[in-house]
Amino acid sequence: QVQLVESGGGLVQPGGSLRLSCAASGFVLSDYLVTWVRQAPGKEVEWLSNISPNGLYINYGDSVKGRFTISRDNFKNTVTLQMNGLSTDDTAVYYCEGRGIRGQGTQVTVSS
């Protein structure tokens, strides 16, 4: 089955960190650009970051630049989003996208 599966979400205090992972099954993720997006309740989907197939080209949205880091391990067929300095504004469901597919998402809640 061709799919993307996100993991690593959870509850964290403001200022904390989380590491999200996006794993592909049924296809080779290293052939594709991968994007992370998020959606907070009642808000539009927000684009966060993307990484080229070879990992050399990376882009970040203004809201996460300097706090989030995207990387990929093509041997493990995964893409990771390291999130530092989290605030309540980062509370959302986080999704990875690649090959025209979006995963089911992982919930990130930032709260004291």
How are the SSEs placed, and which strands pair?
Layout: E1 3-7, E2 10-12, E3 18-25, E4 34-39, E5 45-51, E6 58-60, E7 68-73, E8 78-83, E9 92-98, E10 101-102, E11 106-110
Parallel strand pairs: 2-11
Antiparallel strand pairs: 1-3, 3-8, 4-5, 4-9, 5-6, 7-8, 9-10, 9-11
Mind explaining what this structure looks like?
The chain is built from no helices and 11 strands. The protein is mainly beta. Strands 2, 4, 5, 6, 9, 10 and 11 form a 7-stranded mixed beta sheet that branches. Strands 1-3-8-7 form a 4-stranded antiparallel beta sheet, with no helix packed on it. A hairpin with a 4-residue loop joins strand 7 and strand 8 (78-83). It is globular. The relative contact order is 0.33. The mean pLDDT is 96.
Question: Would you kindly provide a brief summary of this structure?
Answer:
The chain has 112 residues and is mainly β.
Distance between the termini: 39 Å
- How big a fraction of the residues is strand? over 45%
Query: What string gives the helices and strands in order?
Result: EEEEEEEEEEE
What structural class do you assign from the helix and strand content? Answer: mainly beta
Nearest-integer average pLDDT: 96
Question: Tags for this entry?
Answer:
four-stranded antiparallel beta sheet, mainly beta, globular, seven-stranded mixed beta sheet, single chain, 112 residues
